[in-house]
Design brief:
Elements (H helix, E strand, L loop, with lengths): L1 E6 L5 H11 L3 E6 L2 H4 L3 H5 L4 H13 L4 E6 L7 H11 L9 E6 L1 H6 L6 H4 L3 E2 L5 E2 L4 E2 L7 H14 L19
Parallel strand pairs: 1-2, 1-3, 3-4, 4-7
Antiparallel strand pairs: 5-6
Helix pairs in contact: 4-5
Length: 181
């Protein structure tokens, strides 16, 4: 079994909590960084403007030991800076902790409302051909198109071992949250 990390916007915490409960039987551990896990603000806990240091701290403190990150896509997920940082930290390849697989999964509430805006860093790593077939390091699934999540995790891990993130994927971390209408 695998350890996974779920990245999400706080407004989707209840829905992600339900998702986490449905996935628990399939994984050894499911980590999230919601308000209850953070305690103090993440900025205060890391206390740096150095992007390289921020990514290394997120990777070592929160994502290390996981094999895949699922980005739970809700209405404002794209706007959250911590989601951007978590995506970059997942893509970071370290000698003792290789980069993880990654994919986005639209939450049912977002699907029902037609919200599909992806975080830019992840969107750049998903390529669609003219028939809508995806390639590249990342993937995106709607609730209707997703096969079983354990299968998606295994496929993402295989991609992470054979496909590099697009150049520039680890630079230019989001400095602040974007406004979300």
């Amino acid at each position: 079994m695998r350890r996974i990390f779920i990245s999400f916007h706080q407004t989707d915490a209840d829905e992600v909590g339900r998702l986490k409960l449905t996935l628990l039987p399939f994984f050894d551990e499911i980590r999230t960084l919601g308000a209850s896990e953070l305690g103090a603000d993440l900025d205060e806990r890391i206390n740096s403007e150095d992007a390289e240091y921020v990514m290394s701290q997120i990777r070592s403190r929160f994502i290390s030991g996981t094999t895949c990150t699922i980005v739970a896509v809700g209405r404002c997920t794209w706007a959250r800076r911590y989601v951007d940082w978590e995506i970059a930290a997942t893509m970071r390849n370290n000698p003792t902790d290789p980069r993880g697989g990654i994919f986005a999964m639209q939450l049912p509430s977002a699907a029902n409302s037609g919200w599909i805006q992806l975080p830019e860093r992840l969107r750049r790593n998903i390529h669609w051909d003219s028939q809508g077939v995806q390639s590249g390091y990342g993937r995106f699934f709607t609730p209707q198109s997703a096969p079983s999540v354990p299968e998606l995790v295994e496929a993402a891990i295989r991609r992470a071992a054979t496909i590099d993130p697009v150049p520039g994927s680890l630079i230019g971390l989001r400095k602040r949250n974007a406004p979300c209408p």
